[in-house]
Design goal:
Number of helices: 6
Helix content: 10-25%
Order of helices and strands: EEEEHHEHHEEEEEEEEEHEEH
Distance between the termini: 30 Å
Strand content: 15-25%
Structural class: alpha/beta
Length: 269
């Protein structure tokens, strides 16, 4: 099994424009000085969106993603929660929410200062679910937006970063945080979201000065990964359209060959 770089401390912390941020193994980002939890690319109701087009994914992604958010909220007790765009998979997601999931979202927005940052999938987040909206959010020295621009102090999502390591016996592919100390791209938290390898050229514009550092999500911690250990995906696929081959056999063979997340294009950017 490939080795991750050893931890320098029990908890990985990132510095961004003088602010100390804690990346979480669930995919959230904790800003303790502001009592703020940041999550990104929840993509509520992605499963039902594909089901409407005949691609029958299990309809449990919203509930599973909400469980992760609720766990972080119960643990950290944030005052503010920033959802960094593409919180909903499309404009009809609100109508497809179950009554139970709708109540769970409203409970979160009532209990916290919840801010929906606009994404490319949800430029108009549903007003009926509570919270407030922002196209771009400036808080102290940091700026929160969905799509990265390379601005200093920027925290963004959209790219769904994943890293890949290849060892003699197996391949390891994990969602990850990416930072160069001046800007940061968060992983997607949505249960059905795919990922884009951090070696893809798309990350060059997000980190114009180079010096990109990768922090992989593990089972109980986030760990730094040496850049020279990263490898690209075996084959490049289009990152703009979700590819569905319609064959359970081919999908199973791909998973067995590459690992549970390898080979996925990212349908959500």
């Amino acid at each position: 099994m490939p080795d991750l770089s050893p931890r320098t401390a029990d908890t990985t912390r990132l510095h961004l424009r003088g602010e100390l941020l804690t990346p979480l193994c669930e995919g959230g980002l904790w800003w303790p000085d502001r009592s703020t939890l940041i999550v990104s690319d929840l993509h509520f109701e992605k499963g039902s969106a594909f089901a409407r087009r005949g691609q029958l994914l299990p309809p449990y992604d919203t509930a599973a993603t909400l469980t992760v958010v609720e766990h972080l909220v119960a643990t950290l007790k944030p005052v503010t929660i920033i959802s960094l765009g593409d919180s909903f998979h499309d404009g009809g997601a609100e109508a497809r929410l179950s009554d139970k999931d709708t109540a769970r979202i409203r409970a979160l927005t009532r209990a916290h200062d919840w801010i929906w940052v606009e994404g490319n999938h949800d430029p108009d987040p549903p007003e009926a679910l509570g919270g407030r909206t922002a196209r771009i959010l400036n808080v102290g020295p940091l700026v929160f937006r969905h799509e990265p621009t390379g601005e200093v102090g920027e925290v963004s999502g959209h790219l769904h970063p994943v890293m890949r390591l290849s060892g003699p016996h197996r391949t390891l592919r994990r969602r990850c945080f990416v930072s160069d100390g001046c800007r940061l791209v968060m992983p997607a938290m949505g249960a059905f979201t795919g990922g884009l390898n951090v070696l893809d050229p798309a990350f060059s514009s997000a980190f114009p000065g180079g010096g990109m550092m990768v922090f992989a999500m593990g089972g109980d911690r986030v760990v730094p990964v040496r850049r020279d250990k990263l490898v690209p995906d075996r084959r490049r696929v289009s990152t703009g359209v979700w590819r569905y081959d319609g064959s359970a056999v081919q999908r199973r063979q791909r998973v067995e060959r590459k690992g549970p997340e390898d080979g996925k294009s990212d349908p959500d950017r």
